[in-house]
Amino acid sequence: MCKVNATTAKLDVNNPSDKAPVVSQRYVYIAAIFAAVGGLLFGYDTGVISGALIFIKQSFGLSIFQQELAVSSVLVGAAVLAITGGSLSDRFGRRKMLLITSVVFIAGALVCAAAGSIQILILGRVIVGMGIGLASSVVPLYISEISPAKARGWQVSLFQLAITVGILAAYLADYAFTPSAAWRWMLGLAVVPGALLGAGMLYLPETPRFLARHGHFDLARTVLIKIRSTQNVEKEFQEIKAASQESALRGHISDLLLPAVRPALMIGIGLAVFQQVTGINTIIYYAPYIIRTAGINSIQGSILATAGIGTVNVVMTLVSMWLIDRVGRRPLLLTGITGMIISLGALGYIFHLSEGGNFAGLSVVILMFYVASFAISLGPIFWLLIAEIYPLKIRGLAAGIAAGTNWLANFAVSLTFLSLLKGLGPSLTFWLYGVLAIGSWLFSYYLVPETKGRSLEEIEALWHKKPEATQINSASV
Ligand code: BGC
């Protein structure tokens, strides 16, 4: 046992919460909610820059390239730390990495808020990005490993819900601070949820799966009893113990290519790319711009429409959370992507027609339909699947690779969107995303397994028995 794991165990033993009597069924919900605060920071920090940029530009007299750097440096930091953060959490523990994530977020927000030059600001944005990357690979894992199988879908989706709330909060903060041009407040406000994440993780335990994997079986059982709020955890504990003993050796990068892992790795990477190349962040980051292109010229009108889109995103994520453990992942995924294909086709068509006319109202409705379709499908389900389909031994590493790929794809799409609009025009651009959405539907239909109601250990066993993902698809879709 390495020193670090022993430290993790010690931390948890010393955690007063581990000795407390079992009093409430709600413990695991609280744990999931606190961890999901990482998603709030993800949404807030990626969303807030659009409104702040104009004032930062005035403060420092930025060139276009410097503005692009201020926006995209977050994505670069996120991509790098998502990849490494996952495997660090396999070694040091999910909880410890989330504590570090909180410190990184707070440091990044403070550096941004106090930046006296563009160089320092960009440094701050890279640090914030590192926090986002860590959160995106570790939060879904943490929640997935503490949740009971039947509620895992909605509990991991709390992460996506928090992202959407963070995006909406960023729109509102931009709106609130615009009259005073207070960009330092816009960026610095992230300290609050950053501190909340840290406070929560100080109180919360390490996951029973991580503890068992590192040989701390007694502690794993204690935590399980605590988070399940019952002494009756033997069956689940024995399953976790058996799976952890099978993966007692440390996972290696070469394990990613094992026949029982490769299909799952492909699914994570594929969905990561499809989640981004179907255009969600062109809408999230550039909504006001698209709305103006569609013909709404008043600033208030475009802010209102943008806030409307953010609200639809939150509400439909809630709908998805309500459905995800009832109807399953695949039906939601396929239905939502179908909605995305239809709306991207329609959006392209509207822009195609509107060269002479004006369909501004209709295009806002279609944008909302698109965001609603994403919010019930690719949004939450990507983050959920990457936290549940990998074997324990390399869960962090593989989830980190998928999360990092997502950030790289996000970076590529954000960087090319304006050039595509200019080169191809809006209609062809949205049709291109529509074609990629058809690709993502086919990919999901043929490859993505149904994981509803299965424990993480059952999912792991299925890959061993039947390497082809399609063989563990539910019969329902
Ligand atoms: C995506 C983000 C996106 C957000 C929108 C997340 O699942 O990973 O890139 O901005 O959803 O709600």
Please explain how this structure is put together:
It is a single chain. This protein is an all-alpha fold and 477 residues long. The protein has a single domain, classed as Up-down Bundle (Growth Hormone, Chain: A). 78% of the residues lie in helices and 0% in strands. Helix 4 runs antiparallel to helix 19. The N terminus is likely disordered. The structure holds beta-D-glucopyranose. Beta-D-glucopyranose (BGC) binds next to helix 7, helix 14 and helix 19.
Tell me the number of strands: 0
Secondary-structure element pattern, one letter each: HHHHHHHHHHHHHHHHHHHHH
User: Based on CA inertia axes, which overall geometry fits?
Assistant: globular
CATH topology: Growth Hormone, Chain: A
Low-confidence stretches: 1-23, 467-472
Mean pLDDT equals: 87
Question: The biggest beta sheet, please?
Answer: none
- Summed up, the domain count is 1
Features:
single chain, 477 residues, mainly alpha, Growth Hormone, Chain: A, 21 helices, globular, disordered N terminus, binds beta-D-glucopyranose
